[in-house]
UniProtKB/TrEMBL annotation:
Domain of life: Bacteria
Membrane spanning stretches: 57-79, 114-143, 155-172
Any one GO CC term of the record: plasma membrane
Keyword match Protease: no
Recorded topology in the membrane: Multi-pass membrane protein
Gene Ontology molecular functions: hydrolase activity
Family matches, as Gene3D superfamilies: Phosphatidic acid phosphatase type 2/haloperoxidase (1.20.144.10)
Subcellular compartments: Cell membrane
Annotated organism of origin: Clostridium carboxidivorans P7
UniProt entry tagged with the keyword Ligase: no
Record InterPro entries: PAP2/HPO (IPR000326), PAP2/HPO_sf (IPR036938)
Residue span(s) of domain Phosphatidic acid phosphatase type 2/haloperoxidase: 63-170
Stated name of the protein: Phosphoesterase PA-phosphatase related
UniProtKB keywords: Cell membrane, Hydrolase, Membrane, Transmembrane, Transmembrane helix
């Protein structure tokens, strides 16, 4: 129990450091837009367009992104319901928060899971743009902390889950 308290304390400290120290008007505009890149609407639209593309390479990317996204989302939701971690803005004082559409629990970050699931999959097909895609997926995760809706460990777990899902789908399906 002492270890869990230590982890929670560090997680809260890092959350406050990122959430409060980065706060500025410019990021108040940019971060909600970044977080929307990994919304259900954005990713479903991306998957549909790539799956319907007549180019077999792009079609395969879309198909595998869709499968990875479905698998990672299901696992993410199972964890959310099992762990039932309360979102930080509900219990941590003095956070800068913005009201955005969220579900009840925070662990793992579904947006981060989805962003890494899709970005890692595309990277496996197109290694030359891996750096840009990992930067984009990481920015989605940081946006979730900036907005006060996730702890850093929620984001880290989402990144791991999305990445593992992509590797599993890419190499086994």
């Amino acid at each position: 129990m002492k270890i869990l308290n230590h982890i929670q304390h560090g997680d809260t400290f890092l959350l406050k450091t990122i959430n409060i120290s980065l706060k500025c008007k410019c990021l108040d505009i940019i971060m909600p837009l970044v977080t929307r890149l990994a919304s259900k609407f954005s990713l479903v639209t991306f998957c549909l367009f790539t799956e319907l593309n007549p180019n077999p390479f792009i079609h395969m990317i879309g198909l595998k992104c869709t499968i990875s996204l479905i698998i990672s989302t299901i696992i993410s939701q199972v964890f959310k319901q099992s762990v039932s971690r309360i979102r930080p803005f509900l219990i941590v004082n003095n956070l800068n928060i913005q009201k955005i559409g969220i579900d009840e629990y925070s662990f793992p970050s579904g947006h981060t899971t989805a962003a890494f699931s899709v970005c890692v999959m595309i990277s496996l097909f197109c290694p030359s743009i891996t750096f840009l895609l990992m930067l984009l997926a990481s920015l989605v995760g940081i946006s979730r902390i900036y907005l006060g809706v996730h702890y850093p460990s929620d984001v880290f777990a989402g990144a791991i889950l999305g990445t593992l899902s992509s590797f599993l789908v890419f190499y086994l399906i």
